Amino acid sequence: MLALLFIAALVAAVSAGCGGSGSGGSSQTPDEQQASRTAGSPEQKAQGTGSPERSAGGRLGHPALGAADAPVVLIEYSDYQ
Amino acid sequence: MEPKLYKEYVKDGTLRIEWRDFPYRGQESVNAAVAARAAQAQGGFWEYHDLLYDSQFSGYSDENLVALAREAGLDTKRFQSDYENARYEGVVQADFQKGLDLGVNGTPTFFINGKTLVGLQSVGVFEDAIEEARREAEGG
User: Fold this and answer.
1) Which of A2, A75, B35, B104 has its CA 20 to 30 A from that of B45?
2) Domain boundaries, chain B
């Protein structure tokens, strides 16, 4: 019984850790880019349609082009005017 | 973004480009950004984004933005509802605020693995910055 409780607690802890990086759409500071490069952006993983190279985020995360694990991440702040 | 960079670096997995809204030039900037996010909700962000730039001299009236959605092949009824209700304005404003927090005060502003490039740049400048970032990422 104790072993089962321990395993359940371990699973819960691991799940919380995996989900802690936030859902698609969370903003990344440049400092946070390092995590993105190693873990991939949530919005890229969440999107389920279209080309993996040209995705816009299934949950309205940040629109992105390119692989989630690319070693170089370029963030562009821009407007349309 | 320069197509050459896409061909050289995005396609081979070296580079990921992420868009952030920084609509600092008034309500039409905000409207265009919100409209693009409404397009994104239908999986049409990049097509709509390209159309916006192609038609920027026509202005971003509500009518024009809906017409672009039609041109992009989006569900215009859904687009119009999302746009008119400013459904995604919070997403746009969150980007804008984050940009302000980072010191962005004009567009375009780029962060390449955290290093800042301000303003329009030649392809060569981007290539150098990307190569440098790649070397650093690889520990070189």
Assistant:
1) B104
2) 1-16+104-140, 23-97
